[in-house]
């Protein structure tokens, strides 16, 4: 089936395929699609069809053939600026309503056809068949358009609300066709034969349904099964591609670096984090990590991930609450990052470094804790600027506070507090 | 591995006498083997692995047959997951004597998984990156009827109970006390119970009772947003 008919935004594909237009169509979108394909105004094409219609109804025959053969799609022509009808004033996307022009055109068409039909005289008995034929044609058009709509709805997922309407339209179409066929029968013979004719028709239909029904059902089941299989295969291909790209490469690297436990651990951790991100990240949030974070939680996690990769020490991150970053918090994040680096460098052998961030009202609290040897704060020489400047000093300059807790043999903990700029 | 040097860490309270019977439920044979190797040396750790299971049906059968004291339960299992095991073993959990207690052990740290098994009745939740030493300690803690909160679980709970935008259905259950929050916060920061007790000038027993109270609130609280909250966060 023409999966390619899915509306793509390609402006000028190398091979231009003819599609019926789904947008702004009157009946089947044949004229619009052709116009788009040939680069002609729609009105011209419609005129040609109308003109051909008067040549013994050739136009309608052609139109019907096009309708059957050409798949529905977004034609060679971009939809005209009709977007007014697509977005409601409140900004909500909504179904395009059939605009007034289209309705008028259809009514005019019907009146014209009626006048045309009552005026022409094909002579003899043929005259009596015109109205039934028209009814049948109308019914067929209704049903076909409805089938088109169903297909279109499956692209845009907008069909749910319209389902009852669709069913009603389908039933109306079938009813019209049935009415037309009955009229045929009535016109041909006498009304007395109607009962027999209807019974015979029902019997034939029932027989066909009995014979072909199971086969049709099986076919539709096979079709939907095949579709799910294809979707599954696509998903599997995507997973396989990802696993190949990252996991297999990492495993290869691990095999090569088997003698270097530190490197193996670093690789495994980085891969675990990446895979986890890929698996559990909600859809639509973007799968790449490279963007600059704009919330506190993202910033903490990003900093921790970088430190983890660089120093090969696991960092366990727990974040409670979240808020957007402001200048003060950016400074706090830099201080936290420095604290993480220190913890990874000097306290990493004691196990995972614990990073905790909490947003509570206006207060943002970050703690970085390692279980390393710890140190005596007073014994640190005054010229060691790392902690004093890049952690304590930075926090104070930005209106926050930093506390250092450490005792030999008891690990080190850095606590950073900052007020958010906006309430 | 570090637990070689520290030895039987499960036994800081004279564990040589204590034994705990454990069933491992995990669909990865490799993982079961790894855990078995790490904690299953009964003489050193005091943990005796009496059964293993790879899916829900097997788990229920093995647990019913062996009646272990602690079940290490994976969250993702064929046949309905850890939650299903918990549901079908509810009568064993509530048994008056020799109740079976569950400790969830999972590679997933998605909030909905964590909250799901805790709501299902698990006494704690630890991630698979936990060291053998800590795991043994957690098993013993659960066996004593205590709750085990990993830092991440503590973070989840704080987060879930922090948003008090909806009026609580049951004041007692739907709010954490100030002390409980403090304890959780320290757990989330990576403190051990002993360190928390020292920090807050309370006894380890008091810390334990706070944690158990939080677990009870988590399991019983009918805050309807709790589930919604968890599903809203596939991963933190």
From TrEMBL, chain A:
Residues in Histidine kinase/HSP90-like ATPase domain copies: 333-419
Organism field: Streptomyces solicathayae
InterPro entries, alphabetized: HATPase_C_sf (IPR036890), HATPase_dom (IPR003594), Phageshock_PspC_N (IPR007168), Sensor_HK_TwoCompSys (IPR050482)
Protein name as annotated: PspC domain-containing protein
Residue ranges of every copy of the Phage shock protein PspC N-terminal domain listed in the record: 16-71
Residue intervals passing through the bilayer: 100-117, 129-147, 167-187, 193-217
Record keywords: Kinase, Membrane, Transferase, Transmembrane, Transmembrane helix, Two-component regulatory system
Pfam families reported in the protein's UniProt record: HATPase_c (PF02518), PspC (PF04024)
Gene3D superfamilies attached to this UniProt entry: Histidine kinase-like ATPase, C-terminal domain (3.30.565.10)
Lineage: Bacteria, Bacillati, Actinomycetota, Actinomycetes, Kitasatosporales
Region (Disordered): 397-423
UniProtKB/TrEMBL annotation, chain B:
Keywords of this entry: DNA-binding, Phosphoprotein, Transcription, Transcription regulation
Gene3D superfamilies: 3.40.50.2300
Positions of the Response regulatory domain: 21-143
PROSITE patterns in UniProt: HTH_LUXR_1, HTH_LUXR_2, RESPONSE_REGULATORY
Keyword Transcription: yes
Keyword Metal-binding appears in the UniProt entry: no
SUPFAM superfamilies in the cross-refs: C-terminal effector domain of the bipartite response regulators (SSF46894), CheY-like (SSF52172)
Domain HTH luxR-type: 169-234
Modification 4-aspartylphosphate, positions: 74
Name of the protein: Response regulator transcription factor
């Amino acid at each position: 089936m023409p999966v390619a008919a899915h509306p793509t935004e390609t402006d000028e594909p190398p091979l231009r395929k003819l599609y019926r237009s789904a947008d702004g169509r009157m009946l089947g979108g044949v004229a619009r699609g052709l116009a788009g394909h040939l680069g002609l105004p729609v009105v011209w094409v419609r005129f040609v069809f109308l003109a051909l219609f008067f040549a013994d109804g050739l136009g309608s025959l052609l139109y019907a053939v096009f309708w059957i053969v050409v798949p529905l799609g977004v034609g060679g022509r971009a939809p005209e600026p009709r977007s007014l009808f697509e977005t409601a004033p409140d900004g909500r996307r909504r179904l395009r309503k059939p605009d007034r022009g289209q309705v008028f055109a259809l009514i005019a068409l019907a009146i014209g056809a009626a006048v045309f039909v009552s005026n022409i005289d094909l002579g003899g008995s043929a005259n009596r068949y015109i109205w039934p034929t028209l009814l049948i044609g109308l019914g067929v058009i209704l049903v076909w358009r409805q089938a088109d709509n169903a297909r279109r709805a499956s692209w845009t997922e907008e069909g749910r609300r319209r389902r009852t309407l669709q069913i009603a339209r389908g039933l109306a179409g079938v009813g019209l066709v049935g009415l037309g066929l009955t009229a045929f029968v009535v016109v041909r013979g006498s009304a007395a034969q109607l009962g027999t004719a209807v019974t015979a028709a029902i019997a034939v239909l029932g027989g066909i349904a009995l014979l072909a029904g199971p086969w049709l059902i099986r076919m539709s089941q096979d079709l939907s099964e095949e579709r799910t299989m294809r979707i599954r295969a696509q998903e599997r291909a995507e997973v396989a591609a990802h696993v190949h790209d990252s996991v297999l490469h990492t495993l290869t690297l691990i095999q090569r670096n088997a003698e270097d436990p530190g490197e193996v651990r670093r690789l495994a951790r980085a891969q675990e984090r990446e895979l986890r991100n890929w698996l559990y990240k909600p859809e639509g949030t973007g799968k790449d990590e490279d963007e600059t974070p704009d919330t506190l939680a993202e910033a903490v996690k990003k900093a921790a991930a970088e430190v983890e990769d660089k120093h090969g020490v696991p960092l366990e991150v727990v974040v409670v609450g979240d808020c957007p970053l402001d200048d003060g918090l950016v400074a706090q994040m830099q201080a936290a990052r420095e604290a993480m680096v220190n913890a990874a460098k000097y306290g990493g052998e004691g196990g995972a470094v614990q990073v905790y961030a909490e947003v509570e009202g206006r207060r943002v609290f970050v703690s970085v804790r390692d279980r390393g040897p710890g140190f005596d704060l007073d014994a640190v020489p005054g010229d060691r600027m790392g902690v004093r400047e890049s952690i304590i000093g930075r926090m104070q300059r930005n209106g926050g506070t930093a506390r250092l807790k450490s005792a030999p043999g008891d690990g080190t903990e850095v606590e950073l507090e900052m007020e958010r700029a906006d309430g | 591995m570090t637990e070689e040097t520290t030895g039987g860490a499960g036994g800081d309270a004279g564990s040589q006498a204590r034994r705990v019977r454990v069933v491992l439920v995990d669909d990865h044979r490799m993982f079961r083997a790894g855990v078995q190797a790490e904690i299953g040396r009964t003489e050193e750790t005091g943990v005796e692995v009496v059964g293993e299971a790879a899916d829900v049906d097997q788990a229920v059968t093995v647990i019913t047959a062996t009646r272990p004291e602690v079940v290490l339960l994976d969250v993702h299992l064929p046949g309905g997951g850890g939650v299903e095991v918990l549901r079908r073993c509810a009568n064993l959990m509530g048994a008056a004597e020799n109740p079976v207690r569950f400790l969830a052990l999972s590679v997933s740290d998605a909030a909905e998984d964590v909250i799901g098994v805790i709501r299902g009745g698990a006494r704690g939740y630890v991630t698979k990156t936990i060291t053998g030493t800590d795991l043994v300690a957690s098993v013993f803690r659960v066996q004593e009827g205590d709750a085990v909160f990993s830092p991440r679980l503590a973070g989840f709970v704080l987060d879930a109970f922090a948003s008090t935008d909806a009026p609580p259905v049951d004041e007692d259950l739907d709010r954490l006390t100030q002390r409980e929050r403090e304890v959780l916060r320290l757990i989330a920061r990576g403190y051990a119970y002993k360190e928390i007790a020292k920090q807050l000038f309370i006894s380890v027993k008091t810390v334990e009772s706070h944690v158990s109270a939080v677990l009870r609130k988590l399991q019983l609280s009918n805050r309807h947003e709790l589930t919604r909250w968890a599903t809203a966060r596939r991963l933190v």
